[in-house]
Design goal:
Strand content: under 5%
Mean pLDDT: 86
Number of helices: 17
Largest sheet: 2 strands, antiparallel
Distance between the termini: 12 Å
Number of strands: 2
Structural class: mainly alpha
């Protein structure tokens, strides 16, 4: 997502480190008791829902995260780097390789074991951390490489959503699933009726979330669905806005020049409804997709995601020698999937596509930059940990998988930074950084 990634990534890192340290201190028990505490939801005396506090963050608040992700996906498909099929070919193919190869590596290492379900964990790239690494290098990394990474991450997010919806859903209750679909259809009906206030859609989103939760499909998918149906065009065209606004402004001017009105306070009082109507008209000239994206991004980047990190990064170090848990097939599968799988998949698929003449590198980008970006894309955190929570019911196995995520991400971040820095000595680009 094209958000203030650097500051957000720093806050998420602080939250993750704090959770990890606290969980391994003597007061770690209090940390786990806090997040494992039960939250019950009752409406009109009827008991509806039981979640842990961690589940409330992962299942409810993360719905907003996936809503924002889907808004970004739709924006890029309609207006951004994924709009042109020829320009989008390279990041799409690279993202596909960056998902298939890590999953294959994990599968190969866990094929005969009980934890094969974790194959989706190393597929995910954390865009905030990856972009933060590139931003730390300033103008040493060309703008084309940054845009390639952003496009790749968008496709990667789309792939993760599909994997979650298709492969991490169990025991579907058709009635509840139809009820969730009904909330989406109702939202589309409100759009056709030209209902523009967001408050009309929030109850439908909440009902859709609950229906999906009861259906067996992960409830965050309702955020994805509502994001994809969010209108990308303004409710009011520029011409209609100019005409309506001109009439209202003329009213203001007429009152100001009306000498029969002597009380200034009376003029201001009469102008207030007109000014409110102008403000409302102005808001309707902004497409809901862009308006919601810009409104939600800071709260999710600096609130939801750091809270998710603090709730999920408090893993306990295994009480075994490092050489023993490092050889655990889950740790190996996740870490090697992120470091080796992402690099081979992204670089290999993209390089071959260019060699075959099916796509070209973005302006200023070279195979050296491609390699550095491919390595950096092995940083997996938010979505990777999210999938780890879905993959395993055993908290001990989940912690082992998260250990692999942290290990692989640290190696990918360090190696990717060094690769891009060394490559920049030979490919200096003076374009300003894309902030």
């Amino acid at each position: 997502m094209r958000l203030p990634e650097n500051s957000s990534a720093a806050l998420v890192l602080v939250a993750a480190v704090a959770a990890f340290v606290i969980a391994n201190l003597p007061l770690g028990g209090a940390y786990h008791r806090l997040w494992d505490s039960q939250v019950s939801v009752e409406v009109a005396g009827a008991h509806l829902l039981d979640l842990t506090l961690r589940g409330l963050v992962n299942d409810a608040l993360m719905t907003l995260f996936f809503f924002l992700v889907s808004l970004e996906i739709k924006r890029e498909l309609l207006f951004g780097v994924l709009r042109d099929p020829r320009a989008a070919a390279l990041p799409i193919v690279a993202a596909l390789g960056g998902m298939v190869v890590p999953a294959a590596i994990y599968t190969a290492l866990n094929l005969d074991g009980p934890h094969l379900r974790g194959w989706g964990i190393p597929m995910a790239t954390d865009i905030a951390f990856a972009v933060a690494v590139l931003a730390a290098l300033g103008n040493r990394v060309p703008l084309g490489a940054r845009m390639f990474l952003l496009a790749l991450a968008i496709v990667d997010d789309l792939g993760a959503i599909v994997v979650i919806a298709v492969f991490y859903t169990t025991g579907i209750a058709l009635t509840w699933l139809l009820a969730a679909a009904g909330t989406v259809l109702a939202a589309l009906g409100l759009q056709r009726a030209r209902v523009h206030t967001v408050w009309a859609y929030i109850p439908l989103g909440v009902l859709g979330w609950y229906a999906l939760h009861e259906s067996g499909v992960h409830p965050t998918i309702i955020g994805v669905t509502f994001g994809l149906i969010t209108p990308a065009s303004a409710a009011l065209s520029s011409d209609r806005y100019h005409q309506a606004a001109r009439r209202l402004i003329d009213q203001l001017a007429h009152r100001s020049s009306d000498h029969t009105t002597t009380a200034t306070d009376d003029v201001h009082e009469r102008n207030h409804p007109t000014l409110r109507r102008i403000h409302k008209l102005t808001r309707h000239t902004q497409p809901p997709l862009h308006q919601l994206r810009n409104t939600l991004a800071p709260y999710i980047s600096f609130g939801v995601i750091p809270l998710f990190a603090f709730a999920n990064a408090g893993i306990l170090l295994p009480h075994t020698p490092p050489q023993q848990w490092l050889l655990n097939p889950v740790v190996l599968g996740v870490a090697l999937g992120l470091v080796v799988g992402k690099t081979l998949g992204i670089f290999g698929f993209a390089w071959l596509t260019v060699r075959l003449g099916l796509a070209r590198y973005p302006t200023g980008m070279t195979p050296t930059h491609l390699l550095g970006v491919a390595i950096t894309s092995g940083i997996g955190f938010t979505v990777a940990m999210f999938v780890a929570n879905l993959a395993f019911g055993d908290s001990d196995v989940t912690d082992i998988a998260k250990t692999g995520i942290l290990l692989g991400s640290l190696i990918a971040a360090t190696t990717g930074y060094l690769a891009l820095r060394l490559g920049a000595r030979h490919h200096t680009n003076q374009q300003p950084a894309d902030s």
